[in-house]
Amino acid sequence: MPRGYFITFEGLDGSGKTTQLRRLATSLEAQGHTVTTLRQPGGTALGDRIRSVVLDSRTEAALGTISPIAELTLMFADRAQAIAEVIAPALAAGHVVLCDRYTDSSEAYQGGGRQLGSERILALHAAVCDNLQPDLTLLLLPPIDSTLHRARRRNTRHTQTHGTDENRFERESDDFHRRIYAKYQEIAARDSQRVVTIDRNDSIEQIHKIIHRVVSERIPSSPSPIPASILEV
Ligand code: TYD
């Protein structure tokens, strides 16, 4: 069975990863790859419901405090559904899968930010995701102060224009975000083969060029051409 290529994007809120994911999808498609994109939480109908529960800062007024473990297992329920419905079939069909956040986010946010530790997250990953690992993780980790500032500004704007509110995590303290940052650094040091860290505060275009180069070195620039003999039949 052909196996596609699995790339995840990671970073703090406001790190610019979503913009970079879209840019990479466009350039890979232009090279002839079939690209599947999704985000976590979300990316499936069930995942979108989970997303609105875990990200909306009004959830706690409606449902009460979500315990860190409940939050973690909701993230994994979302991920299990995304693997079954989107990621595994796309990889089996030979697609390049670009996923905006994956298990590293659970390790950084719930393991680091909520202080649940890494072990529990890695054990859940093995049990729930059958240890499906990305082939490559692009970790956007510019200096934390600029990232926090950008994320808060953007979410205020989003709430004003869309009327929806995805601020539950952004409302957390700076210490919470510093723990996430430190956990990401720990993951990158541990999984240095898989994780490529981009820690520069460069323009969108410059970062895209770096990402494009890293990805091009790892996957062929286009799928193997169909031999002329087959085309002539
Ligand atoms: P996202 O939509 O990627 O927001 P942004 O574009 O601002 O980065 O992320 C959703 C939020 O969910 C983000 O604050 C991180 C959080 N999250 C976790 O806490 N654990 C997880 O496992 C995942 C996937 C996301």
Task: Give a quick rundown of the structure.
The chain is of the alpha/beta class and 233 residues long.
CATH class membership:
Alpha Beta
Bound compounds, each kind once, are: thymidine-5'-diphosphate
Proportion of beta-strand residues: 5-15%
Mean pLDDT: 89
Can you walk through the features of this model?
With 233 residues, the chain is α/β, with parallel strands linked by helices. The chain has one domain: Rossmann fold, CATH 3.40.50. Helix content is 57%, strand content 11%. The protein is built from 10 helices and 5 strands; from the N terminus they run βαβαααβααβααβαα. A 5-stranded parallel beta sheet has the order 2-3-1-4-5, sandwiched between helices. Helix 1 packs across helix 9, helix 2 packs antiparallel against helix 4 and helix 5 packs antiparallel against helix 6. The C terminus is likely disordered. The site of thymidine-5'-diphosphate (TYD) has 15 residues, from helix 5.
Give the topology, please.
Layout: E1 5-11, H1 17-30, E2 35-39, H2 45-55, H3 59-63, H4 68-92, E3 96-100, H5 103-113, H6 118-128, E4 136-140, H7 144-162, H8 174-190, E5 195-198, H9 204-218, H10 228-232
Parallel strand pairs: 1-3, 1-4, 2-3, 4-5
Helix pairs in contact: 1-9, 2-4, 4-6, 5-6, 5-8
Thymidine-5'-diphosphate binds at residues 13, 18, 39-41, 55, 75, 100-101, 105-106, 109-110, 151, 169.
